[in-house]
Amino acid sequence: MVGVSVLTIRNLQKKYGQHEVLKGVELHIKQGDVLGFVGANGAGKTTTLHCITGLVEQDDGEIMINHVPKSHEITYKKQFYFIPDTIQVFKNISAYTWINYVLTLYGKEDEEKLDSLIKAFGMENSIYKSMGTYSYGMLHKMALITAFTISPPILIMDEPLNGLDPLAVVTFKNYLKEYVESGGTVLFSTHLLDVAEKICKSIALLKDGEIQLHESLEKLLQEGNLEMVFMEKQAYEA
């Protein structure tokens, strides 16, 4: 059941030089939601995620998670876990060492859950290997294992299914469902509308640096499939 607001964004603005990428983004995500963040290439989806997670500083606007403002850095950052599209790692250490280090930063320790996730994602034979040997898909599995072990109030992901094999996609969906049912909230950007249609509870469309649409998936699908709705809302410039 979708409940109280977890992520609040007000008047988020960001420009690079003279190029205004975000022009006052307004977004509210409630507990238990799985929100698909969609938009054309260059719409500002990744910039928005980077502003939320602190990888980029906004020029103006307010961001809060669980009523904790972004300025309260340590407390704020413990409210989420972010999986970027491109995962940067220390290549000479094992994934197991890295995951346990990240868990300590969040004050989490759940060996049983961690072991269960490692097995579920088929990483038993590679989890102790250095991450420099990992493929793109293996890095995403490692990040998902970390995210679901931490189980923070909100998971923020940029194209989370990239590089995953079909079995890992099914595993991801199962754990995502379990995470949300236990009170978690999800924000993820994707350009794959069929994926969004299968996973999301709501959709936010970013165009020209502003949120043009934020609606429940159920209501949107009354108008047709998500691809039709997306095109009808003129997400792409003619």
Note down, in words, how this protein is organized.
- The protein is of the alpha/beta class and 238 residues long.
- The chain has a single domain, classed as Rossmann fold (3-Layer(aba) Sandwich).
- It is built from nine helices and ten strands.
- A six-stranded mixed sheet has the order 6-7-8-3-9-10, sandwiched between helices. Strands 2-1-4-5 form a four-stranded antiparallel sheet.
- β1 and β2 form a beta hairpin.
- α3 (95-105) runs parallel beside α5 (136-150).
- The longest helix is centred in the C-terminal third of the chain and has 16 residues, at 166-181.
- The model has no long low-confidence stretch (mean pLDDT 92).
CATH class: Alpha Beta
* Strand arrangement, major sheet: 6-7-8-3-9-10
- Uncertain spans: none
How large, in whole angstroms, is the Cα Rg?
18 Å
Amino-to-carboxy terminus distance: 39 Å
Strand content: 25-35%
* Secondary structural class: alpha/beta
Q: What is the correct CATH architecture?
A: 3-Layer(aba) Sandwich
Tally of individual domains: 1
Which geometry do the CA atoms define? globular
Q: Mean of the pLDDT scores?
A: 92
The count of strands amounts to 10
CATH superfamily: P-loop containing nucleotide triphosphate hydrolases
CATH topology: Rossmann fold
Q: Helicity, in percent?
A: 25-40%
